[in-house]
Structure formats: C-alpha cells, structure tokens
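INFO  loader      accepted 1 record
INFO  loader      residues=241
INFO  predictor   begin
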Amino acid sequence: MNKQLTISSLLLASCFALPINAAEVDHTYNINYINDAPVLNGQGVDKAWEKANPLIDFTFPWRADPAPATEFRALWNDKAIYFRYVVADNNLSIGRSAERGVLDSDRVELFLAKDPQLSTYYTLEIDAQAQAYSAIASYSVNLKKRTSLVDSWDWGSVEKYASVTANGYIVEAKIPLDKISELGLWQNNEKTQLLCALMRAEFTPLEDGSIDMGWMTWVDPKTAKPNFHNPGTFGKCNLVK
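INFO  predictor   done
INFO  writer      dumping tokens
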C-alpha cells in the first residue's frame, strides 16, 4: 500500500471517529481488549487497530499555534499492551548526535507512574526511526519538581517500530504485562488501571541549525513553562473487556 495514502487515510479516519474526550471523561483513556494482537511493523495498518479507541486530544499548552494532527490508539490482550501513534509532520527532525540522539528528534512519548505523586515513574520516547530514550525518574510534591532522572535505565523487553511517511510518521510498540507488574505500575488489584501520560515533541529544524521545540500533551498540566515531568500531565488508562 502507498505510504502517503496510508497515513492520509489513517488521519482522515481519526477526524471522523468519535475521540475519547479527556475533558468529558476526566482524562481517562479506555484500552480495549483484543484476542489477536496487532502485527507490529511500524506501518500501523493492521485491521486490529480499528477496534481501538482513537484519542486525538493533543494540544500545544504553551504556545498559540494550532497543533498538528496526532492520534493515539491502544489495545491489550493477556500478554501485552500495544499502542500506536499516527503523527502528521511535514518537517521531521531526526537527532544525529551520539550524545543526544532521540532527544533532538520529533518523537512521541508515554510515561507510566507508580502513584499519583510520581514517587517513581518511567518514560518511553520513540522517534520516527524507532530510536528510543527511556528513564526512571521521581518527583517531589513538596518541592514541586523532578528530583531524579536516570536515563541508563531501559525497558528491556519492550518492542518498538516506526516508519517515516509522506506527511509524518507512525510509531508502534508493545509493553508486556509482566513488565508492568514487575515495575509495580498497576493501580488496582485487578491489574486494569494505570497512570499514564501521553505526549509528543514537535520539533522543526531551523536554517541556522537550531531546533524550534514545540511540546504537545493529551492532558494540559497548567504549568507556566513546558514541563511533562509533573503529576498534572498524567491521566488514567483503563484496560477494559
């Protein structure tokens, strides 16, 4: 299938689908159950994704520019959680620095936290070439700031795929349920509730070699400056059958 046609069709479909509106459901995204896992290859065209709820409520909280189209979908089965981002981006930035890598890239992000205070939380950031950055971090409610971040930590068994398209990129990933249990991320005994933050770094390379950095979120944390690392960025992700 032509890549340009593929991403255009995916984004067009998201415009007409009924999104999960964060304001109406208290920032909750429902992850639907599926028997057969989607095939992940970075193309994002497996029909299984049609059974997932589309989430398109991504905005620029810290600038007035209209936010480019971003769609998140997730599914789960007895083995893992699967998620897909479909992103519109006409001017991709891909990090080339050995030191910074994905941190200079356009990318999508997912954070999962152990508790609402973010005493411990884990980051996962993936760019259009499936380069990934991950970290374990902590936040202090009293100090109102992140107090630690260790980026030598790695998700290990998490699978990541991506592809560049004619007008953006697609990212797919798989997080084993065993990994979520190992990290103590479940918010209830039934293992159906998670604290999740969904974001996007929208970067534009400039002629002078610098990067215009835009930051998009599902949940507006109401901070004066761009800051994903705080409790206000998190919503709820519920596994439902």
